[in-house]
Structure formats: C-alpha cells, structure tokens
Design a protein that fits this description.
Number of domains: 2
Number of strands: 12
CATH superfamily of the largest domain: Type I PLP-dependent aspartate aminotransferase-like (Major domain)
Oligomer: single chain
Distance between the termini: 54 Å
Strand order of the largest sheet: 1-7-6-5-4-2-3
CATH architecture of the largest domain: 3-Layer(aba) Sandwich
Order of helices and strands: HHHEHEHEHEHEHEEHHEHEHEEHEH
CATH class of the largest domain: Alpha Beta
Helix content: 40-55%
Strand content: 5-15%
Number of helices: 14
CATH topology of the largest domain: Aspartate Aminotransferase, domain 2
Largest sheet: 7 strands, mixed
Amino acid sequence: MSKDWKPRTKLVHTGIRRSQYGEVSEAIFLTQGFVYDSAEAAEARFLKAGEDEFIYARYGNPTVRMFEDRIAALEGTEDAFATASGMAAVNGALTSMLRAGDHVVSSRALFGSCLYILEEVLTRYGVDVTFVDGPDLDQWRAAVRPGTKAVFFESLSNPTLEVIDIRAVSDIAHAVGATVIVDNVFSTPTFSRAVELGADVVVYSTTKHIDGQGRALGGVILGTREFIRKTVEPYLKHTGAAMSPFTAWIMLKGLETLDLRVRAQADSATRIAQALSGDPRLSRVIFPHLRDHPQHDLATAQMEKGGTVLSLDLRGGQAAAFRFLNALRIVTISNNLGDAKSIITHPATTTHQRLSEDQRAALGITPGLVRLSVGLEDAEDLLADLTQALDAV
C-alpha cells in the first residue's frame, strides 16, 4: 500500500488478503475456528500467532482483519479492533484500560448508552467519573488532575451537535498523561482527522455511515498497535465482543463507497439547514457549518464539511414535534443515523428518554427537538417534504 494514496483509493484497495483463487471482491471466511498441521503447530500459534495466523474468530478472522486494516489505513492509526456494535467499541475502549480508583473526565453531552457506561457501569466498579461541558475548555482544565487516566468525548455530540476542540482538549489531557478517546461517529472518518488533532483512540459505530445502508451492527476501536493488541484485544477476545466475518464483509463493501456517500449527504444537509434557518416555526436549526452555530469557526476549521446530521427545534414542544414527524412522507421515523435513507427521531422520547427532564434540559434536548439524519435522496425532495410537514404543524 502506498502512503501517498488518497482516501478513496485506500477505501477500495487497502487491507486485501486474497486467497489462492485470486478473487476480486474480498472473501468471506465464514469460520469460527482454524486447523493446524500438527500439535506442535497449534502450540506454537497459541504461544504467538503470526500476522496471517488465526486461532478462533473471537480472537481474529481473515475477513475481519481486512476490515480492521482498511479502516486503520483510512483513519491513520497503526491498528484497529472490530467489535459487534458501536457500544461494544465504546465499552471496550474504556473498560479495557480502566481499574478501580482510576479517574475519567468526559463531556456530558453524549448518546444515552454512552452516558450509561460512564454513569452506571464504570462507577459501579470504582472508577471516578467527572463530567464537564464539552466546549468549555476551562472546565476541562479544572477537571483533569495528575493521574487522570482518560478523557472521553463525542467530537460532534448527539443530538445537539456541540463541537469539541479535539486539539485543545488533547493538549489538556496529555499534560497530565491521560489517554484521549474520541467517539467520532457524527464527524465521520471522511470529515474529521481526530488522530492528527491529538486523539489517541478513536471509536466508531460502523452501524452508521460505514455500513450506511441499515444492514448490520458493528463497531471499531482504532489506536496504536500497543494499545489495540495489548490492552483492547485481551479484554475483548475474552469477553466476546468481536465482529462477525459476515458483518466485516458488509463493512468492507460499505467502506468502498463511504467517501462518495457522506459527501453527497453532507451537501444535502447543508442545503436543508440553510433553507430552514430562520423559519418562524423553528426556534433553532442546529448544524455545525451554519454561521449561527456557537462553535461555527471551530467546526469549519476542524471538519471539512458540516456532517450529515442536523437538529430542528420546533416551537410548540413535543406535540408540534410529533405532528411534524407524523406528517413526513419521505423521511422515515427511526432512531438510527448515517443511512442511505433519511431518518428522523425525537431524542427526548427515544435515544435520550432514560435521562431525567433536568438532564435533558441541561443538554439542550428540548421537547421540540428532532434529529434529522440526511440520506441520499434528492435534497430538493427532502426539503419539500420537510416544508410540507412544517405546514402541517
């Protein structure tokens, strides 16, 4: 592989392991185990498996390894470990490196399941967790301390689209020796180069843009070879969160078109955000590349495009939001995102419903807020659908 290849070339050609048949499309090695020529060979492999030697699908598989190699090449990391879901990736990245008594600092604006891991799971086992307002760098400086083990944040938060300054927070964390773990799902590997900005570990729910067609759950943890193979792999191979070979093949096929898809989706999202901005029926249109976004300058510096997701806050609260959702004809009501189909959800009653009313208010998740993931449909058709649904409200 040439390091000079552009991202689209890497997304098609990196990580390929061809069998003796010379197939063009990557092979699916749909096996959970592997055989050995002798007892001595089995012993040697268990002592130290080579680069292209595998033991058990929970530890690794040729198809899964192709996916790991390809996305690591795209992200610019030394290695990757593919997981069964995005939340398995978040949990694996954090839990594999933390012990009772360790301290973690996290932004408070997170997906509901991420909050559960930090608030409920890690604290249950004696990890000390401090939450901060992600955009406020003074709060990060005040929260970290000598011995802080890790900081965690979504580079673009779900669903209020706060933009976190990756370089600045990384500098703060590294000053006390903390590992920087970034959930980069909303920013996508196409528009955000988190590692170049200082992140040590990046996680994705590959369920979202990487699959991009609503087919399979998956996740991935990316970082240095030492972190992936000596910290993450021992934890995940024994706790069973490995990605299946068939899912890895789906993700490989998704990567081939990732750049093309998310650029088209981001362009449509920008068109829709600009068109709806200032609509009197909306109290807010939240999109990182709109000029009225609180972190607009940071967003344009840190992200090539504004992403594929925008949030709309309807005047009239939940009743207006529900009327709006129910009037849509093209956009589908669902809680996923990053799909080829445009998808919309009401976070207060779905993805963030387990939070208290006060917690939602603190995060800016109002009763009227809806999150729109823009798909591959024609932008003008989507805009017409959204406009007629606003008329119905």
